[in-house]
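[job 4471] stage=fold_predict status=RUNNING
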Amino acid sequence: MRQAGRYLPQYRKIREKHDVVAICKNPELCSEVTTLPVEVLGVDAAIMFGDIMLPLEGMGVRFHIKEGLGPVIEEPIGTLHGAQSLEDFDAKTDARFVLEAIELTKKRLDGRAPLIGFCGAPFTLASYLIEGTPTRDFINTKALMYRDSKTWELLMDKLATAMANYLQAQIQAGVDVVQLFDSWVGCLSPQDYRRYVLSYSQRIFKNLEALGVPRIHFATGASNLLEEMKLAGGDVFSVDWRIPIDIAWQRLGHDVGIQGNLDPAVLLADMDLIKSQAADILKRVAGYRGHIFNLGHGMLPETSPENVAELVKFVHDFSRESS
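[job 4471] inference complete, writing structure tokens
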């Protein structure tokens, strides 16, 4: 959950000389940044440093990442012609730098921790492509989805195909786990998710099934979609703080794992509150198999690295004492 980010002094030092995309495209730097949290914080897994927009460049999309705002698309998609213009994506050529970074990171980790690869889900990527910039209401995305089914279906089809290819290539390069980030799908109703989204995410998960790695399905603000997300697929579901974790697990069923779900803002509090909130989560899932303690969303830049390291130690100690 944004392990290596602006809260880490070691990362900020690297960012003084390189922007995010430059780091992503430099396998050595990317590998160094990816392993920082394992070395500095003692977390149990590393997640590849990257951005969900990276594979879109291989599809012919021109974008830049604006500091403090996020991805900005130079030519947003709003027509069938725009969707048709997206090029076929091949990770082995269009994202070779990511695959090289994975190989370097596996060597750097040397078995100390598993490595997580990831990509954006079709809906979330489509929302960026249609809106052009980050948004809170997704009006243009929903309007196209409702009004122009031909364009929507072509866009989602192309994105699903590309992301399946991207994750397959990451697995072949050596990642131990993959995560599908559908960050903005919580803006939809369950019926709209089933009609306009489910089959595309489902295709990605099915295409990965035979490769034998755990698949994490992530969304934020999507407590209303848990049953629909389970239909789409995944071995582990990542939930945010807006729902008690035990209630989420009851709804998902105990045949899957669950990841979460501390509010990232809690890490801005004192350690007594942080430990109390973490303990509540751990007690709620006591005896359940397949819990990955994590935040409910990305680390905030104001977070103290000392608080994160102390939280990691607390979770480790609590888990050992409870086992």
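[job 4471] summary: The chain has one domain: 9-238.
[job 4471] exit 0
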